[in-house]
Amino acid sequence: MNIGLLLYIPYRDLENRIMAAVTGAGFDVTLAQARVLQRIGPDGTRLTELAEAAQVTKQTAGFLVDQLEKLGYVERVPDPTDGRARLVRVTEKAKGATPVAEAEIARIEAEWEQHIGKRRMAQLREALEKLGEITDPYR
C-alpha cells in the first residue's frame, strides 16, 4: 500500500468520527460544508481563498458558504483592507462546534496512542510535522 493511502485511511476515519460527533451534538453541517468552514481564518477569509484552500471551484465555495450563511454558521462582512471585497467569518453558533470537535480529536488521539504506544505516537506526530514543512502550502 502506498504512503498516501496509508495517511488517508486514518485521516478519513478521524474526519468521519469528528463529523459524527459534531452532527450528533446538533450541528447540522455536511462534510463539504465543514471542510470549507474549518478553513475560515479567525478574522475572516475571502471566498477565493476559501475555494483555493478547500480545493474547490469558487462557485462551489460560494454555494457552500451560501448554505452555511442560511444555517447561521457564517456571515459575510466588508473586508477592512479592501472596500470592494467581503470576508466570510464564522459566527458564535459555528464556534460552538469547536469544543465538540476538539474533544473527539482528543479521544481519537488517545485511542491511537493506546494502540501504537506513546513513543510511536510522538514519532508519528514529529514526522508528520516535519513533512508539513515541505507539503503545506498554507504554513
Can you describe what's shown?
The protein has 139 residues and is mainly alpha-helical. It has 2 domains: 1-27 and 96-139, no CATH class; 29-91, Orthogonal Bundle (Arc Repressor Mutant, subunit A). 66% of the residues lie in helices and 11% in strands. A two-stranded antiparallel sheet has the order 1-2. It is globular and about 50 Å long.
Count of strand segments: 2
Number of discrete helical segments: 7
Biggest sheet character = 2 strands, antiparallel
Radius of gyration computed on alpha carbons:
17 Å
Strand arrangement across the biggest beta sheet: 1-2
Strand residue percentage: 5-15%
What's the quaternary structure here? single chain
CA-based shape: globular
Distance between the termini: 28 Å
Order of helices and strands: HHHHEEHHH
Mean pLDDT rating: 95
- The helix fraction, in percent, is 55-70%
Low-confidence stretches are none
